[in-house]
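Page 42, continued from yesterday. The earlier attempt failed because a stray header line got pasted into the input along with the sequence. Redoing it now with the clean sequence only.
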Amino acid sequence: MISLNINDQNYNIDADPEMPLLWAIRDLVGLTGTKFGCGVAQCGACVVHLNGEAVRSCVTKVSRAQNQKILTIEGLSKNNDHPLQLAWNEADVPQCGYCHSGQIMSAAVLLREKPDPTDEDIDQAMSGNICRYGTYPRIRKAIHMAAEITRKGGMAK
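This time it went through. Structure tokens are written below.
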């Protein structure tokens, strides 16, 4: 049995220690907000936080995550009111929406580390997240909006 703490809930799962964390989250725990994109850590659709660090769950072994703090898109906020989620909607970012949980999770780490990021900071932090519809200008706009919401006292985690 492997013990995982996901979104502040404990799960004991019967899994091969080599299993990618993505599949433990999706298939064994049932949280499907984290998406499978490429399987080789290139697209960013599968980003979750492991002890506050953005990691690609498709290549992170479940054994590495054991007894660590895992945060998925479902745990980012209780009511989908994290500043990034609010800004994503306001800026009309999603097209198909498939990559956006990973985009938001990457952006959350950026805003925690740099509360007032420049365009260059955003471009660098988000360079590992691919959007097949090219919504990059709206993603950048939404990250700036989320930073502003946070500065004005909006909800942040």
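Notes: DSSP finds six helices and five strands in the chain.
Reminder to self: strip header lines before submitting.
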